[in-house]
Amino acid sequence: MQYQERVSRPYQRILNRIPILGDVLQRPLGVLGFVIVLGFMLMVIFAPLLTSYGFAEQNIPSMLQGPSKAHWLGTDHLGRDLWSRIVHGSRIALSVALPSVAIALTTGVIVGLVAGYVGGIVDDITLVILDSLQAFPAVILALTILALLGPSLANVIIVIGLAWTPGYARIARAQVLTAKQNQYIEVERSLGASQTRILGIHILPNILAPLLILAAMDLPVVITFEAGLSFLGLGVRPPTPSWGVVLSDGFNFIRQSPWPITWAGLTLIITTLGFTLFGETLRDVLDPALSGTRGA
């Protein structure tokens, strides 16, 4: 029996109205990724309703306890409820990942459009700058900038956005170089269309698909990257419940209690896995050249 035949009629109507989502949910890995991403989004939206304790609420007599009826996932070294910190940490992960990827995507598209369409010396200078930025590993670049600016949520977003911009700029530039050779662009020029119209109406919509797929696949990478920076003490500052901060605190007390590092690590693994599966399935659906290859 096909997957769509097993879906109830209300859900089938929803899938018919959103064809891309319907195609994604026809694939087992897409379903798994969608369920994980949906669960993550529900945690983000309803975090205060899902927890009975404040994420910074301390209870020293109850520190480093295991899972119990009062504390589902146990407590950390300050007696803070781990479930509350994990759930609220999802908000930190999303509040870093979405703006960072949006900054990188927007900046990269603008740079790629200008460099690819104008060409010449502008393109050469842009490539030199992009090569210079990509010559530094993202971690080294982030550590250097954060050491100068200081650790904070805003600085982490800026640093990650800057580190991811060259990738989007290169893809946008390559797409523009291909798109501007099409005959309809030449027809628009012959009809007297302005450069702004050509870029905004004809080229930009045709280069966005691969960039949006890349953005979807970069979200789990950015979430992991932010957790790594927070683990090193260069991300968000305590008591903000970043998953990296929970991991760092749990690592310092791992001999007394393995629960903080266990739950934070599992949450990070499951979340990044869900976004990765969903992003890759979305890529297979939207890119005819790759559609079905992962299923095979």
Which features would summarize this protein structure in a list?
296 residues, mainly alpha, 13 helices, elongated, disordered N terminus
Commentary on this structure:
With 296 residues, the chain is an all-alpha fold. It has helices spanning 3-6, 9-17, 19-24, 28-45, 47-50, 82-118, 120-135, 138-149, 153-179, 183-190, 195-231, 243-252, 259-286. Helix 4 crosses helix 6 and helix 6 (82-118) packs parallel to helix 9. It starts with a helix and ends in a 10-residue tail after the last helix.
Q: Which consecutive residue ranges, at least 5 long each, have pLDDT under 50?
A: 1-8, 290-296
Distance between the termini: 19 Å
The best one-word shape is elongated
Q: Give helix and strand order, one letter per element, not per position.
A: HHHHHHHHHHHHH
Strand content: under 5%
How helix-rich are the residues, as a percent range?
Answer: over 70%
Largest sheet: none
Provide a compact summary of the structure.
With 296 residues, the chain is mostly helical. 73% of the residues lie in helices and 0% in strands.
What layout of secondary structure does this protein have?
Elements: H1 3-6, H2 9-17, H3 19-24, H4 28-45, H5 47-50, H6 82-118, H7 120-135, H8 138-149, H9 153-179, H10 183-190, H11 195-231, H12 243-252, H13 259-286
Helix pairs in contact: 4-6, 4-13, 6-7, 6-9, 6-11, 7-9, 8-9, 9-11, 11-12, 11-13, 12-13
